[in-house]
Amino acid sequence: MIQRADHLVQLRRLERRHLLRGALSVGAVSLLTGCGDLSTKDGVFDRMLWAMLKFNDRMQELLFDPDRLAATFRPDQITRPFKFNAYYPISQVRRPDADWAMEVSGLVSDTTSWKLDRLRTLPQEGQITRHICVEGWSQIGQWSGVPLRVFLRRVGADLRAKYVGFECFDDYSSSIDMASALHPQTILALDFEGAPLTPEWGAPVRLRIPTKLGFKNPKNISAITVTNENPGGYWEDLGYNWYSGS
Ligand SMILES: Nc1nc2c(c(=O)[nH]1)N[C@H]1C(S)=C(S)[C@@H](COP(=O)(O)O)O[C@H]1N2
Ligand SMILES: [Mo]
To answer: 203 and 110, same structural domain?
Structure first.
């Protein structure tokens, strides 16, 4: 009997995986067909595409398993050298101002800002995971920092809110759904390969979320907000699939 139950669980997992693959390819197709200007949101065709993309986000959210962990790797599997990526070249990386502090706003009870020292007083977690860029490359890296769910609880965030948004001081931004924000491997990374983040890797703090594509891992964070209005983001507003995760 126990064996049979195990079997069923496995079968359900498999089904879920296949469904997920289906849902992701719907996303890919909608991206490919989005050759018109998706950001205008007018015209029947654009409206239809936006509806499809929103439906696709919703499907992906429904299929998200909050307990399924992204694959982890051994230290000897870390990619070196690690590739830098941003919407600008590495020569234009911006360093944080001397008075940098991370602002917190929206549906939270404590809106005091956070300096690096205070973030380091919170519990830290490390991970060696694969970072997958939508451009078609991936690499394995090591990050550690504060689990976002620890941080959100600490600032008294309304965990029933729908979104967590991130603003960066290089004029980048991104946002994620609350279930993904609370995933155990979603961290506010302070360290990369065992040392404090340097500007190109996202200093002072970046989001590391291995269940989502690279563009949803904002570096150089300046502000976090908890909200029920989808904050969008730099690439998201240009038509990249908003959910972009598994
Ligand atoms: N602030 C900021 N964060 C960002 C980006 C950016 O341009 N600015 N690019 C994103 C993209 S598309 C990728 S693939 C990763 C690259 O991270 P890495 O330089 O650590 O490899 O950062 C993401 N986070
Ligand atoms: Mo990316």
So the answer is: yes
Distance 43 CA to ligand 1 centre (A): 32
The answer to whether residues 185 and 93 belong to one domain is yes
**Same domain, residue pair 40 and 152:** no
Q: In the chain, which ranges are continuous DSSP H helix?
A: 2-33, 44-63, 116-119, 148-154, 178-181
**Closest residue to atom 17 of ligand 1, CA basis:** 85
Give the residue whose CA is nearest to atom 9 of ligand 1: 86
Which amino acid appears at position 84 of this protein?
A: F
Ligand 1 mutation target, pool 176, 201, 215, most atoms within 8 A of CB = 215
Q: What is the count of structural domains for the chain?
A: 2
167 CB near ligand 1 (under 6 Å): no
Enumerate the β-bridge partners of residue 132: 138
Per the structure, the complete domain to which residue 33 belongs is given by 2-63
For residues 207 and 87, state if they share a domain: yes
Question: The domain spanning residue 204 has which CATH number?
Answer: 3.90.420.10
Q: Are residues 42 and 123 in the same domain?
A: no
Residue 12 Cα to ligand 1 midpoint, Å, equals: 34
When mean pLDDT is compared over 15-24, 47-56, 90-99, the highest value belongs to: 90-99
Residue pLDDT, tens place only, 135-174: 999 999 999 999 999 999 999 999 999 999 999 999 999 9
Q: What is the pLDDT of residues 48-85, one digit of tens each?
A: 888 888 899 999 999 999 999 999 999 999 999 999 99
CA of 204 to the centre of ligand 1 (A): 14
CA separation for the pair 50, 238 (Å, rounded): 12
How remote is the CA of residue 9 from the centroid of ligand 2, in Å? Answer: 34
Consecutive H or E run containing 221 = strand 221-227
